């Protein structure tokens, strides 16, 4: 059937909202006096352990380190799940390393998507698996995306094989002003979501401004039905969260736990927001309420306020050239990313899409080219950072991954050509030093439970 | 002289000082893609006269007295042809008042005709033109019926003469979407289809002015529209994905021999590619679908186009609706070229991939040899690119339609000029235009 990829995300929100009866959050379920969870008790902890790998030397490649560096005829060494050294042709290769001749090929850090709904809006996109928007109240900071992720979503495997995705942030949808907590995953096949959770990654709170929340709730005759309503609900919710933090006797409240985490700086904020004027208001709301926005997502108008975003150290997570599918996307332009980067602000190329996540490198290349045509020339090595290091930074994991630096996780993609060319694909992908995809080995192509016994099981996809 | 050349000449002779003129046009020394499936030609020349292609190739001479553009380092191609789009039917997709894609509350279905709603001033048209798209077919979405109505063929020139051919095809949804529209099952969709065609047949056979049977379910205009499908004068585009559903569609030819079928979607087409080829039914598809996003697309793979093409199916890249913008066609074609380097995958050669976004969709749309190809007598739609058109870094520098040089300006280019620098010291940005 003919689809509307761009429309699907928000229409899913509407359908979910209309299909569900409104649940009142009266707080009847208060069960616990002590709201401070004991420090040792990290619920739903990651059980991910790196898979076995061999000490590996990639030689002769063009290496982009993800932080703006480029080495021609470079060598990349990793062992025991960690990057050991990155250097030129003269870098000594210790004994016991498997050498892979990467002449004519390219090496980048593993690709990272800061905005994905894999697992929460999985394939097949049937309503029984549609778990991305708890569209029953305008603020649901109490829900956690990890409780919706279906690890068998075949989309994870496509993202790995075609997109070189090694880490990704799964966000709740944008029906709500406060949609809930994100979860950051290593893109490893797993029976459980705990087996994918990125060890130690901070949580984020997904927020949304603009059309979606006011439409979803306004259409039910409920607050918010306007942008001013959006802000009013947000501000009151923050004020209530602050009071909760200050009240040692308050009953435990899951939603306010999340908001308190934001106010304490432990939980990041990923804010879906399209329009420049609205982003400026959100920045002021964050100052008023005492938190920080880490990244604006879908920020199609960031180019209008790139200076403001730089001054406030906020990343813009953007598509290359989506526009026009909704009113607040009407001013999207292909030069957005390049103009943001030109102003010195942080650019992240994100997908918000199970197909787009397979081609973040291509989207970055298109955005770079659009800039070049108006005289804004962002070097290839910096552009690679748009889908590696900068994404890691926006997710709070740039200390562990996102770049090729000694001691970091060996999340590495070997491309069969320049990753900024349409003619290139990942050839091999390592996550924590374990080779989890190899285009030359059909058995190193993960197949989800869902696809077993179906037409096309194990096919190239 | 083409229709547009005549129009342009008429306008130029009148009062409009800026009216576009059909130029006699020659570009030399470019890398030339004819669009016919062949490999690009180095040091190629294209000549356009009176709005039509006169010649294109390596050994083409520029006629005496014609000024030639030096295409050194650049690429020249026919204008892209986008099959099954929503061009000219919306300004903002989610703003219902600007969107004429679907009519949920209309009593009509097959009779719906997009032609009078087409808006050549839509930004979506201008932005697609700047991406090198010069011709397209436009299809509405379904309202409450399996029949979406009749689509049109358009050009994307920056003028009022957008419509090339109204009522160029009928669109019917079968498969999962058709099942929902028909009342809940594929069974119901097939009965609805057959009943509609039967009523169309009966109406067509009635003497003018006579009454139809009282149990007719279709409105008279809907039945009249379908009569043209029955006699093959309008192709029937069928939205269908699953292998089994495609087989059921191909079987329709046994019952209704004159149907001119076109499969739209066919995500599982590779599973029965020889059957589709033997039926001589062409396919318009989204080539990069590789997820089982529905139970009707379990076998989705990016190798679908390559495998069907190899089996002899005529396959066009298309279905540019919503977020899937027509200007993405070259990227999608380029991805199919990339597959040729991937072990186990089936892709297309560069020439085949380019044909899948130019001459093949034109052929399927009834414009074989006339559009999407730089062949003598074809429309003078020429795009001058700053590099390999399938590569991510490339874009059109100039676009001609019917030999008329086109403006590539639009809302996006105006915004980018305004915000290229952020200096707001002396006056607000609103004064910068």
TrEMBL record, chain A:
Family matches, as SUPFAM superfamilies: Composite domain of metallo-dependent hydrolases, Metallo-dependent hydrolases
Keyword terms of this UniProt record: Signal
Keyword Disulfide bond set for record: no
Secretion signal span: 1-29
Residue ranges of every copy of the Amidohydrolase-related domain listed in the record: 106-421
Disordered as annotated region, ranges: 27-51
Biased composition range(s): Basic and acidic residues: 29-38
CDD domains for this protein: Met_dep_hydrolase_C (cd01309)
Top-level taxon of the source organism: Bacteria
InterPro entries assigned: Amidohydro-rel, Metal-dep_hydrolase_composite, Metal_Hydrolase, Metallo-dep_Hydrolase
Protein name as it appears in the record: Amidohydrolase
From TrEMBL, chain B:
Transmembrane segments: none
Domain Amidohydrolase: 303-404
Superkingdom assignment: Bacteria
UniProt keywords, alphabetically: Signal
Pfam families registered for this protein in UniProt: Amidohydro_3
InterPro entries: Amidohydro_3, Metal-dep_hydrolase_composite, Metallo-dep_Hydrolase
Residues of the signal peptide: 1-22
SUPFAM superfamilies for the chain: Composite domain of metallo-dependent hydrolases (SSF51338)
PANTHER family: ALPHA-D-RIBOSE 1-METHYLPHOSPHONATE 5-TRIPHOSPHATE DIPHOSPHATASE
Protein name per the record: Amidohydrolase family protein
Organism: Novosphingobium beihaiensis
């Amino acid at each position: 059937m003919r689809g509307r990829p761009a429309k699907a995300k928000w229409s899913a929100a509407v359908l979910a909202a209309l299909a569900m009866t409104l649940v009142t959050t009266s707080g009847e379920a208060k069960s616990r006096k002590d709201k401070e969870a004991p420090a040792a008790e990290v619920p739903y902890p990651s059980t991910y352990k790196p898979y076995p790998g061999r000490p590996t030397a990639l030689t002769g490649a063009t290496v982009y380190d993800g932080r703006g560096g480029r080495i021609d005829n470079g060598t990349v060494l990793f062992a025991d799940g960690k990057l050991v050294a990155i250097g030129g042709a003269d870098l000594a290769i210790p004994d016991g390393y498997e050498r892979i001749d990467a002449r004519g090929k390219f090496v980048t850090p593993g690709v990272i998507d800061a905005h994905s709904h894999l697992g929460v809006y999985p394939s097949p996109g049937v309503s029984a698996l549609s778990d991305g928007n708890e569209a029953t109240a305008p603020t649901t900071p109490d829900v956690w995306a990890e409780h919706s992720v279906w690890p068998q979503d075949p989309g994870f495997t496509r993202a790995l094989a075609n997109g070189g995705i090694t880490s990704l942030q799964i966000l709740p949808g944008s029906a709500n002003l406060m949609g809930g907590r994100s979860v950051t995953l290593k893109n490893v096949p797993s029976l459980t979501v705990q087996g994918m959770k990125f060890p130690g990654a901070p949580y984020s709170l997904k927020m949304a401004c603009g059309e979606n929340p006011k439409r979803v709730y306004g259409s039910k005759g409920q607050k918010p039905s306007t942008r001013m309503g959006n802000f009013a609900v947000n501000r009151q919710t923050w004020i209530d969260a602050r009071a909760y933090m200050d009240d040692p006797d308050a009953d435990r409240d899951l939603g306010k736990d999340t908001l308190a985490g934001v106010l304490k700086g432990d939980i990041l904020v990923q804010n879906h927001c399209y329009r420049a004027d609205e982003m400026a208001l959100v920045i002021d709301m964050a100052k008023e309420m005492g938190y920080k926005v880490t990244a604006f997502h879908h920020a199609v108008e960031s180019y209008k306020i790139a200076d403001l975003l730089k001054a406030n150290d906020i990343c813009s997570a953007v598509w290359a050239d989506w526009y026009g599918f909704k009113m607040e996307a009407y001013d999207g332009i292909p030069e957005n990313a390049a103009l943001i980067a030109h102003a010195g602000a942080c650019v992240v190329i994100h997908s918000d899409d199970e197909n787009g996540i397979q081609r973040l490198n291509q989207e970055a290349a298109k955005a770079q080219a659009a800039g070049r045509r108006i005289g804004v020339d962002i070097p290839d090595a910096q552009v690679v950072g748009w889908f590696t290091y900068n994404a890691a930074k926006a997710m709070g994991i740039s200390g562990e991954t996102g770049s090729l630096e000694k001691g970091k996780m060996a999340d590495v993609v070997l491309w069969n050509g320049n990753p900024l060319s349409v003619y290139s694909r990942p050839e091999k992908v390592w996550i924590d030093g374990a080779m989890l995809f190899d285009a030359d080995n059909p058995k190193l192509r993960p197949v989800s439970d869902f696809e077993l016994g179906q037409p096309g099981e194990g096919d190239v996809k | 002289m083409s229709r547009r050349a005549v129009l342009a000449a008429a306008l130029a002779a009148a009062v409009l000082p800026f009216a576009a003129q059909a130029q006699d046009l020659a570009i030399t020394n470019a890398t030339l893609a004819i669009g016919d499936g062949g490999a690009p030609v180095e040091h190629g020349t294209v000549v356009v006269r009176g709005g039509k292609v006169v010649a294109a190739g390596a050994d083409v001479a520029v006629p005496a007295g014609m000024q030639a553009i030096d295409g050194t380092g650049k690429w020249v191609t026919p204008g892209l042809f986008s099959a099954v789009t929503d061009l000219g039917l919306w300004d903002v997709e989610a703003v219902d008042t600007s969107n004429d894609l679907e009519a949920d509350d209309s009593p009509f279905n097959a009779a719906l005709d997009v032609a009078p709603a087409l808006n050549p001033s839509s930004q979506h048209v201008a932005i697609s033109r700047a991406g090198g798209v010069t011709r397209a077919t436009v299809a509405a979405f379904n309202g409450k019926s399996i029949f979406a109505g009749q689509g049109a063929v358009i050009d994307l020139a920056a003028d009022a003469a957008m419509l090339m051919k109204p009522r160029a095809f009928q669109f019917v949804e079968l498969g999962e979407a058709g099942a929902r529209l028909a009342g809940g099952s594929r069974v119901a969709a097939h009965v609805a289809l057959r009943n509609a065609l039967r009523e169309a047949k009966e109406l067509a056979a009635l003497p003018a002015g006579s009454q139809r049977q009282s149990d007719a379910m279709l409105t008279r205009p809907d039945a009249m529209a379908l009569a043209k499908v029955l006699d093959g004068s309008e192709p029937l585009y069928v939205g269908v994905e699953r292998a089994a559903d495609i087989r059921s569609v191909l079987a329709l030819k046994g019952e209704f021999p004159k149907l001119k079928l076109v499969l739209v979607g066919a995500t599982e087409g590779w599973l029965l590619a020889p059957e589709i080829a033997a039926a001589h039914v062409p396919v318009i598809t989204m080539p990069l679908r590789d997820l089982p996003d529905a139970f009707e697309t379990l076998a989705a793979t990016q190798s679908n186009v390559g495998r069907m093409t190899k089996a002899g199916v005529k396959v066009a890249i298309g279905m540019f609706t919503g977020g899937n913008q027509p200007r993405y066609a070259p990227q999608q074609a380029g991805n199919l070229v990339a597959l040729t380097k991937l072990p186990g995958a089936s892709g297309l050669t560069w020439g085949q991939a380019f044909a899948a976004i130019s001459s093949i969709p034109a052929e399927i749309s009834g414009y074989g040899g006339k559009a999407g190809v730089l062949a003598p007598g074809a429309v003078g739609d020429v795009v001058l690119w700053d590099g390999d058109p399938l590569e991510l870094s490339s874009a059109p520098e100039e676009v001609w339609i019917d030999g008329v040089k086109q403006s590539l300006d639009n809302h996006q280019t105006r915004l980018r000029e305004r915000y290229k620098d952020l200096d707001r010291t002396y006056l607000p940005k609103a004064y910068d235009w």
